Amino acid sequence: MPRTVYFLNGPNANLYGLDSSGTYGSESFASIEARCQRHAAELGLQLDFRQSNHEGVLVDWIQEARLHADAVIINAAGLTYSSVPILDALLAFDGPIIEAHMSNIWKRERFRHHSYVSKAATGVIAGLGALGYRLALAAVAELLLEEKP
Ligand code: DHK
């Protein structure tokens, strides 16, 4: 039975590849998802990849993950730095949690240097673009194996 991973993306992630600053690379969000889906299949994971611009929707999905997912990967995007509700929902989740960012948030503005998500995360990956997303999948595959061989 494949293990299920919720990969939750926050506000504006749907614009990756379209933003002229180049901060998030040139690959579209749909293409990033497609590559993650292929990688998850290779790792034997069932991937549920979602994006919302709304904090409450993300909280609902994290709560849903308690019942339906073995691991959560989350890029809460701009909500990373402000959302206590997302932190509280993540703290109520039992399995591995990987915080992922496309950009190296520590190289950027100071307001991006404090993450509420990190307080609940098993590990953090940042600065590697969409490669980091695939590394996050590889990390949860390993962590789930360690948890329940
Ligand atoms: C994505 C965003 O949309 C920003 O708000 C964050 C994160 C960084 C990322 O690098 O993926 O500050």
Automatic annotation (TrEMBL):
Coiled coil: none annotated. Belongs to the type-II 3-dehydroquinase family. The lineage of its organism: Bacteria, Pseudomonadati, Pseudomonadota, Gammaproteobacteria, Pseudomonadales. It is an enzyme of class 4 (lyase). The active site is at residues 24, 101. NCBIfam families: PRK05395.1-2, PRK05395.1-3, PRK05395.1-4. This is 3-dehydroquinate dehydratase. Homododecamer. Keywords: Amino-acid biosynthesis, Aromatic amino acid biosynthesis, Lyase. Substrate binds at residues 75, 88, 102-103, 112.
